[in-house]
Amino acid sequence: MFIQTQDTPNPATLKFIPGVPVMSQGTAEFGDLDAAKPSPLAHRLFQIDGVTNVFLGSDFVAVTKAQSLEWFSLKPAILAGIMEHYASGLPVVENDAEIADPHAEGSDSDTVQQIKELLDSRVRPAVAMDGGDIVFQGFEDGIVTLQMRGACQGCPSSTATLKMGIENMLRHYIPEVREVRAAEM
Description:
Elements: E1 4-7, E2 13-17, E3 28-30, H1 40-46, E4 51-56, E5 61-65, H2 71-88, H3 110-129, E6 132-140, E7 143-150, H4 158-173, E8 179-182
Parallel strand pairs: 7-8
Antiparallel strand pairs: 1-2, 2-5, 3-4, 4-5, 6-7
Helix pairs in contact: 1-2
């Protein structure tokens, strides 16, 4: 197995592309070893000292490291962990695991449906290329609240992405949108 690595705009996060599907649908993020129990892959990666977050996308694994460590010391162990996982035959996420799909459809207003459609078609593919995801949290009084996930969470350029990119686009297409904010973590 050949795993490509790719830098992300977040220097603490590296994107690993194993060349095989990772998640068949949706995404999953794990912030610690306990949260990673439903995912044998994420659980294995959290056993590496210095791994602080694991984000699973359709065809990639984004791993965030502790600020005090360098990638040259962590990268070989992460590559080995991903290879060992796929060689083991275990699933990426247990079949019976309850992974909440933040993109699940609900009974949304027309405006919220438009916001979600624009995020799904124009924003999420771009941020996935950088090893992250942006999840709609809410729309109230003209303010769209989004949650940054994966490499986007804690990224130095995420504020610019929200304000200059996403906010401008949403305001252009949907006059009801006045502002875009990141959800409090």
